[in-house]
Amino acid sequence: MKKMSPISKVIALASAGALVAFLAFAAPKGESEQTAKSESTETISAYPLDYCLVSGEKLGSMGDPIVKVYDGREVKFCCNNCVKSFEKDQAKYLKKLDDAVLSAQKADYPLETCVVSGEPLVPSSMGDPVDYMYNGRLVRFCCAGCIKTFNKEPAKYLAMLDAASTKSPEAEESHEGHNHAH
């Protein structure tokens, strides 16, 4: 392999730098920002509603929905005016989104116990159970103290939730009284 001269190395580095700068500025405005957000987010939770969070209009009634990502959550809008309204008060609308997701997911929540401690999800001396939204997903705890433990290893606890979600009650019932020791 031929050894590069010092001047060749400088030219190669300068060319690489120019290429990186060109690519950074060549992306359409806003696209590189959203791409960076998307890449830094482990998973993006899909938008669970069929209506615009801001106006309440059915998505698609005014053309293709506008899709944006905020804090790892996909949000769909009916028009650009709603995007502007949302961005003026993100906290208000993300809370509204969390409330809608929470009520939709709570009915089908797969566990009756805290995913961290295993304690029942009922009022106790520790207080009422806590409903927590993590990347657009409901996680229920026996108390607020379990949230800190969950946040240290969310993948571990989400895997436990996923496993509980895939257990079919019908499959478990069909094995009652069935002897596997043939």
Please tell me about this protein's structure:
The chain contains seven helices and four strands, in the order ααββααββααα. The protein is mostly helical. Among the domains are: 43-107, no CATH class; 109-168, no CATH class. It has a two-stranded antiparallel sheet with strand order 1-2. Strands 3-4 form a two-stranded antiparallel ribbon. It is elongated, with a radius of gyration of 24 Å. The relative contact order is 0.08.
Number of strands: 4
**What low-confidence regions span 5 or more consecutive residues with pLDDT below 50?**
8-41, 170-180
Q: Structural class of the secondary structure composition? A: mainly alpha
Helix fraction bin: 40-55%
The geometry reads as: elongated
- Mean of pLDDT: 76
| Largest beta-sheet details | 2 strands, antiparallel
Radius of gyration: 24 Å
Q: Between the first and last Cα atoms, what is the distance in angstroms?
A: 69 Å
Q: Strand order, main sheet: write it out.
A: 1-2
Walk me through the topology.
Layout lengths: L5 H21 L4 H10 L25 E5 L2 E5 L2 H9 L1 H17 L23 E5 L2 E5 L3 H8 L1 H13 L2 H6 L8
Question: What features would you highlight for this structure?
Answer:
two-stranded antiparallel ribbon; two-stranded antiparallel sheet; 46% helix; 182 residues; mainly alpha; 11% strand; disordered C terminus
Brief synopsis:
The chain is mostly helical and 182 residues long. 46% of the residues lie in helices and 11% in strands.
